[in-house]
Amino acid sequence: MSNVKTLPSWRALTQHGVMAQANHDEVARLNVLTHLNLHLSSRVIPGLRQVYEKHVHPAFVKDHGREPETRHEVRKVMMEDGYCQLWSALRRNTMEMRHQTGRAMVLRQAGVLSNKVEQLNKGCDTLQLDPKIEVPANINQVDIHCQPGCYYQEYFDQDVTVAASYDVGLFVTTAGLLGALSDGGGQAIANWLKTEHPNFKPKRILDLGCTVGHNAVPLAQAFPDAEVIAIDVATPCLRYAHARAKSLGVDNIRFVQANAESLPQYADESFDLITSAMFWHEASHQMLPKALKTVQRLLKPEGLTIHLEQPQYHGKSVFEQFMRDWDTYYNNEPYWGPMHDLDLAEQLDKAGFDGSAMFEIGVVAKVDEKIFGKSAAGDSGEDYGRAPVWNAFGIWKNKQ
Amino acid sequence: MTSTNTSTHKTSADIDILDLAGTKAKGQRPYFLADKQVEQVLSIAMAVATELAVTRERLASLEAVLTEKGIISADAIEQFAPSAKHTAARSLDTQEYLARILRIVQQDKEEISQDDKSMEQLQRELTQTD
Ligand SMILES: C[S@@+](CC[C@H](N)C(=O)[O-])C[C@H]1O[C@@H](n2cnc3c(N)ncnc32)[C@H](O)[C@@H]1O
Asked: Using alpha carbons only, how large is chain B's radius of gyration in Å?
């Protein structure tokens, strides 16, 4: 067993001020599920390519007299294969168990958590909730990634359990590869800015769809003189995010409840840097162009906008596209596929940028290697969309 | 549109933790195996496997503590009779345990009464551009 890599325990996560407390068995359960995810990605997933190459693909070619042309054709035949069905059943079930485990843990301390959050948020003008906001159509009909209650459900007055459970479970879904504060993505972006653009010193930063603020915090810490505005539509997430940041000693983030579509409260050209992490794949064909136009409107000349996402499908084999697209249909992510099909440069163009100036960079989560080991690439097996190996796309406004 | 004010209870004391913890995610649940019931049994088996792993870890913790401290003799566990308080705590434990491993049944029940849409259906709606 000596060549088997061990994972850090869930206990390695930083216990910030509003982190739910885990008892002995809850930690054990979270760790088992983390290992189960790793098992599926490193030991079960490789079999799918074999199934495809040995059986499914040859059978398709024989039946049709041609190669499969789209991921949808691949999906149709793969989902009839017993091994693929078994993997799918296990993957779906593991996700559901992760949610039940996180929820059971935070629900039993729901009152304590909401009190802690209220105490930390009391009297702060850096938390701006809008009681009249409506859940946008892009997330109101389905509980994204099988997360019951989605981002916004409150089970009682001042409830933050959906946010607390989200924070608890990021570790499980990513096999611990996001680091002690699940902020490996935000840290990687901050690090990239500092090393590649040391003279870029943004004063006003906007983060779209911040959820629990985990990736906004490292940006705020990297630019302590900047004012960061982190927006989201989900009340429990914003309350929790604000308290979380405060407990970490970060006070230059303003958490604002707002829909990314228009943001009329902010003036044209009022931000130097606009970011998001894993945001666009939960949008829609209606919302995404509006929000990108808003980004274009809000960005100062010479300002930068940069977004962490999983890579686009273009140029990938239909098999890899099928693998990456699994979550679209089977993990309640209906816009995942359509978003990854978009020509992002064209979208930027339509939003008023010069799309030809778009750049893309590969980003790997930046974590404390002493605890979390070497970063994701190659380590956890190819996980087709779950591993913290991203593609960031960005553009400088009107810059030659 | 749905309002974000989704709270249905006044305080944290009013929530049913067992039901809420295992509740299903909105959106039709796909099944992958040829037989739905077989897949439900698989789900139960995986949950039981998880719980067994948790128990193994707890026993390992216990053994380590006891060995380190030299507290009990080998037959002390065999001789132990739980008190009324212990019995009540275990009953609660067992109920939580069962709610966990039978989650799939609860969710199937919930799906019967919910009108969830498929990802295909939602994708069509989300990709409409007026
Ligand atoms: C996948 S999460 C983003 C995760 C997070 N940014 C990170 O760093 O990992 C998507 C977030 O976007 C929010 N969201 C979805 N639609 C939105 C909209 N139209 N305007 C603002 N926020 C939105 C959701 O509430 C959710 O918190």
From this structure: 22
